[in-house]
Amino acid sequence: MNRSIALLAALALAVASAATAQSPLPRPAAKAAAPLSAEAQAVRKLVLERFPGADIRHIAKTAYAGLYEVMFDDQMIYVDPRVDYVFVGSVYDAKTKTNLTERKSRELNRVAWGDLPLDLAIKKVKGTGARKLAVFSDADCPFCARLEETLKGVDDVTIYTFLYPIDQLHPDAARKSRLIWCAPDRVKAWDEFFASGKLPDNAGTCDTPIAATAALGQKLKVTATPTLVFADGSVVPGALPAANLEAELVRAETEARKTASAR
To answer: Could you tell me which of 174, 190, 231, 256 has the fewest CB atoms within 10 Å of its CB?
Structure first.
C-alpha cells in the first residue's frame, strides 16, 4: 500500500463502522463512472494527484460550501475545488437534521431487492413476515451474534440470512456454515448455534450456497459482517441497535411501497 492510499485509508477509518462490523475483505472493482463536467474532471485529477491509485466510484459538486463529494469504494469524503483540504465525516442539513452523507451513500450503493437470489439464504418468518430484511452473516462474527440477539425482539419480519464466512478472521466459520446449511431445519440450527454454540450432527457434505453467496457479496460490495439489506435496497453495514433497526425497517418498507406505487 503506498503512502497516499495509506493516508486515505486512515481518513476513512476515522468514520468507518468498525465498532459494529468486521470488514477484512478486499473492495470489489468500481463500476464505470458517469460522464463528469469539466470542473469535476479537474477536481478528479487533483484528487488522483493527492492520492495516487485511489479508486474513485463517484464525484460530484454538492449544494453546500462549494465542496465536492468523492466516494472511494463505499466511503464518502469531501474536498474543496483545489483539493487542498479533505473533510471526513457526515454532513447534516441543520434545518431538517438529515444526514446528507448517509442519504447520498445509500443512493449510490442501493441494490435491487428483486434481484437478490433469496433461495441462497436461510429464510426465517416471524409473525406476519410482512417486512423484509436480508443479512450477510458470519457464524463466528461477534457483531453478527449481537445482531441475532437484537433480532429476537423484532416481529412481523421475514429474515433472509446469507451465510458469508470470512476466512481471514474466522477460519472455522465456513465449516460451521456448511453444517448449519446441511441440517434438516436450517432456521433451528442457526438459532441454536447462536443461543448455545450447538452445531448440527451431520458431515456438512451437502451442496451449499456458500461459494455463490461469496460471489454475490463481492458483486454487491459487501465487505463487512453483518451487512443488512432492507426492502428498498438500501445497504447498511453493522449490528444496528434495536431502535435504529426498527426505524430502518419502517423507513425501508415505506420507501419500497412508494417505489412500487409509482411504477
So the answer is: 256
pLDDT value, residue 226? 97
Cell for 227?
451487512
**Contact by Cβ (8 Å): 228, 134:** yes
CATH number of the domain within which 231 lies: 3.40.30.10
pLDDT value of position 132: 97
Cα 81 to Cα 107: distance, rounded to the nearest angstrom: 23
Strands 56-61 and 75-79: unpaired
Residues of the chain with pLDDT under 70: 1-19, 23-34, 73-74, 263
**Residue that is last in its domain, among 109, 142, 173:** 109
Nearest to 21 by CA among 203, 235, 247: 235
Residues 181 and 65 occupy one common structural domain: no
Same domain? For 93 and 119 the reply is no
Q: Please give the single-letter amino acid code of residue 195.
A: A
Start-end of H helices in the chain: 3-13, 38-50, 100-109, 142-151, 173-181, 186-196, 210-219, 242-262
Query: Residue 133 forms beta bridges with which residues?
Result: 159, 230
- Residue 208's pLDDT is 98
Domain that holds residue 84: 3-109
Query: Cα separations (Å) of 192 from 118, 160, 180?
Result: 22, 17, 10
Burial of 114 (0-12, 13-18, 19+ CB in 10 A): exposed
CA dihedral over 58, 92, 90, 224, signed as positive or negative: negative
Helix (H/G/I), strand (E/B), else coil: 78: strand
pLDDT at 55: 84
Residue 150: CB atoms within 10 A of its CB come to: 17
pLDDT (0 to 100) of residue 240: 93
